[in-house]
Amino acid sequence: MELIIYLAIGAIAGFTAGLFGVGGGLIIVPILYVVFTQMGYDPSVIMHMALGTSLATIIVTSISSVTAHHKKGAVLWNVFKNLAPGLVIGAFLGAGIADILSGQHLQLIIGAFAIWVAFKMFRGANVQVDSSKQLPSASKQMLAGGGIGVASAIFGIGGGSLTVPYLNKNGVVMQKAVATSAACGLPIAIAGALGFMFFGAQEQTEIKNAIGYVHIYAFIGISIMSFITAKVGAKVAHALSPAMLKKCFACLLTTVGLYFIYQGITK
């Protein structure tokens, strides 16, 4: 039964990853939080486990999603190369910061962040991207990657909710922003997951079937299904209009944000 739950989470998360370029983390984290709570894990580490496990699964969904986007020629690999060093360093540091924060604080921070991004995306849904705008210099892109990496590890996401708006703002159309964001999810996920394993292993709490803050069974179950369904999501993304994609993305983020704020306040 436990594995079936993880496979179902993976199916939903993978589709979302391909569709929005968010690595599925914004779906995986709240569902894992509920599942781990029901399984009776130590409340003080449940949120950290949901984040760490989410990042580990994003390694797989990113590979699947970016392969589908690359075939359509939508990934800006030169931009990826500029962002990647900052993403790696930032994601590892972000895992360390998340380790210091309490589960309740993490919930409130993630909830507020999701709603803020949703508002920004929805407000700009019908605004055309200014293609005359140019991306900043390589060094500035690397710095932006560092900020995105830190935040992504704290939020347990592949960085899409930060990378996509960043690229949009600098003249990159939605489909290419989503595709490039999917590629950026890979270095974030690898560095972030390793960080959560490392910092989690330093804690005194013994977690069954886990390496640090990464739950092995959940990682396997979610990864298997998400690898398949991420390709379906990527195909759908290229069939939708940019405005519709942004509105769907904003609705998803709002739902997740309200859920986490509610959980954080009612504790």
From TrEMBL:
Membrane topology note: Multi-pass membrane protein
Protein's name in the database: Probable membrane transporter protein
Organism: Acinetobacter rongchengensis
Predominant localisation class: membrane
Entry's Gene Ontology cellular component terms: plasma membrane
Sorted UniProt keywords: Cell membrane, Membrane, Transmembrane, Transmembrane helix
One Pfam family of this chain: TauE
Subcellular location: Cell membrane; Membrane
Family to which the UniProt record says this protein belongs: Belongs to the 4-toluene sulfonate uptake permease (TSUP) (TC 2.A.102) family.
InterPro entries, alphabetized: TM_pro_TauE-like
Hydrolase is among the record's keywords: no
Membrane-traversing stretches: 7-33, 45-67, 79-98, 104-122, 143-166, 178-199, 211-232, 244-262
